[in-house]
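Long-time lurker. I teach an intro course on protein structure, and each term I like to show students one example going from raw sequence to a predicted 3D structure in token notation. This year I'd like something fresh instead of my usual example. Would anyone be willing to generate the tokens for the chain below so I can use it in lecture? Attribution to the forum is fine with me.
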Amino acid sequence: MDRPLGVTLLASFFAMESVINAIALYGYYAGGFPLGVTLYYTIVSMAGFAAAYGLYVGQSWGRYGTMVLSGWEILIGLLGTYMALEIEPMSPVQAMTKVLVNAIVIYFLTRPEIVGYFKR
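-- Reply from a regular --
Happy to contribute to a lecture. Here you go:
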């Protein structure tokens, strides 16, 4: 079974997001930000690269990892709408966009044709 276009696009999205997180990580590290911030971006960046690779090669752990990472990002987005997070400060519009995009990712990864691709 060929890789669905949506999975390829999603893997690319997570890879690009991880590159952006890695660049932000370098900026935070060089700027002397607290260890918690740099640790957060290190973990999120590495997890994003792993999820992108797992999606791209069609591994079921990549699908599950992407859903866990998206769930985490939804939680961060929801918390960001109610309080200013030191780790990832954002406006309510940014926070709700983060929630919406990651909810769509989880929805997409639970569609039967996508689940079938990862069960091959």
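Some talking points for your students: The chain has one domain: 5-118. The radius of gyration is 15 Å.
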